[in-house]
Amino acid sequence: MSVLNLKAISKSYQDGEEERTILDKLDLQVSAGEFVAILGPSGSGKSTLLSIAGALLSADSGEIYLDGEKVGSQKEWTKLRREKIGFIFQNHQLLPFLTIAEQLDMIGKFSKRFSKTEVKQRQEALLAELGIADCAKKYPKQLSGGQKQRAAIARAFLNQPSLILADEPTASLDASRGRQVAELIRQEVKERQTAVVMVTHDERILDVVDTVYRLENAKLVKVNN
Questions:
Q1: What is the dihedral of CA 207, 167, 221, 210, to 10 degrees?
Q2: Pairing of β 85-88 and β 69-70
Q3: What is the predicted pLDDT for the residue at 41?
Q4: Ranges for the ABC transporter domain (predicted)?
């Protein structure tokens, strides 16, 4: 089943006196349980593509479908992100003044998809699966870089989103921890049948993903993987 379907997405920016096209009628389809990686040099448009897919930025033209439904006006975006999309960032973006459990509770409260009891159950299950059950009552400053990124993964998956968008999730980690994080994302993808799109420079982890694309000349080119 197709979770994310981008059709003929285009995006241009003004660069001095010139207009620069970074996405040119780009198509992408991602299925449930599929882990997709997108490679490309800095400035190629990877993060822009992720922002458009995540209802954070408007495309100049094209259509976006999530779970078979067309993504509509910006008025719907906040609800869509809250209920259907999870984000994993390069620098985890955990709130320093809340424990990991409190941060996950807050995400569950905003979503309103699950009861308080269900949120707690999902929280405990995710932290256990990710190997950081003992970190629930700790603050981010008490965690290692790898533990923080695992907590960010738990946050992204908590509300059982259809789509996870990961922006360089291993960039701030060493090779061993980076691979561990990629493998944990894959584990959750397969377990929960979520679709994941990850933009990355880290070619050492590409054997963990299902499908690899390169963003070249404003187009996505599939790479044999």
A1: 30
A2: unpaired
A3: 82
A4: 4-223
The pTM of this model reads 0.87
First to last CA, the chain: 21
Q: What is the 3-state secondary structure (H, E, C) of the chain?
A: CEEEEEEEEEEEEEECCEEEEEEEEEEEEEECCCEEEEECCCCCCHHHHHHHHCCCCCCCEEEEEECCEECCCHHHHHHHHHHHEEEECCCCCCCCCCCHHHHHHHHHHHHCCCCHHHHHHHHHHHHHHCCCHHHCCCCHHHCCHHHHHHHHHHHHHCCCCCEEEEECCCCCCCHHHHHHHHHHHHHHHHHHCCEEEEECCCHHHHHHCCEEEEEECCEEEEECC
**CATH of the domain spanning 2-223:** 3.40.50.300
Q: Which residue has the tokens 């997709």?
A: 36
Answer whether 164's CB lies under 8 Å from 89's CB: no
Is residue 149 within 8 A of residue 181, CB to CB? The reply is yes
> What is the predicted pLDDT for the residue at 77?
85
pLDDT at 111: 64
Q: How far apart are CA 131 and CA 151, in angstroms?
A: 10
pLDDT at 224: 67
Query: How much is the pLDDT for 179?
Result: 86
Choose among 123, 81, 131: nearest CA to 101: 123
Amino acid letter at 188? E
The low-confidence residues of the chain, meaning pLDDT below 70, are: 111-112, 224-225
